[in-house]
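Bench log. Compound arrived from synthesis this morning; before running ITC I wanted a structural hypothesis for how magnesium ion sits in the protein. Inputs:
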Amino acid sequence: MAYKLKSPREIELMREAGRLVRQVLDHLAGVAAPGVTTAVLNDEAERMCRQAGAQCLFKGVPGPKGPFPGAICCSINEQVVHGIPGERKIAAGDLVSIDFGVRLHGYCGDAATTLIIGEVGETRRRLVDVTRRMLEVAIEMARPGERWSTIAAAMKRLADEQKFGVVRQFVGHGIGTEMHEDPKVPNYVSRALKAHDIVLTEGLVLAVEPMVNVGTEEVNVLADGWTVVTADGQPSAHFEHMLAITADGVDVLTDGR
Ligand code: MG
């Protein structure tokens, strides 16, 4: 399958978008604390986005029960992704996953992180560490000619070793002038991936985003039409970076450089 490959100029524009996303996520990491509502995080993200002359990517995305109302997705504990920011107060012991995206000068940036609020138990800490490590492994392995299935298998193995569940219903994606472009980028190996593997090529830009649950990989969507939660109520973590495949390796466009 042919994907839209990006020129060096386009990749530089995506790095600018990615840098803004990282600035916002870093800022929110400092604001998030017990007693702070997720609406406050959302308002901060929206303000920084506006000041930078960028467009918040997630706001207004159509859904089954109406458009997404937030600038950020804020998903706490058993919420996996697509949590709607609001009046809920963050509490000590929470895992707070924040996903944020912008369009700047016509190009998209998209990244996510999971924050540990205060003290958490060993399992929650291990969940966050392993999910972050899965993304690091993807970055270490990505280079031209590599097959995505090889990387996805290595990512999944890390979760399997801990008996954690890797979410299958939501996956990473190509990204460019649109937030979601082909290909779909799973964090596990399926028959479909093996049949249509992604061979990494210079100019391919992927948003890689492992979503990992302490328990079952199964998820449900709440009645709001957006919030994805684990089927067993156990916590979940989520990290995302935007990776550009270069001539000799990979360039992380959302690491703030
Ligand atoms: Mg994404």
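What the model suggests: The mean pLDDT is 97. The longest helix spans residues 8-31.
ITC booked for Thursday regardless.
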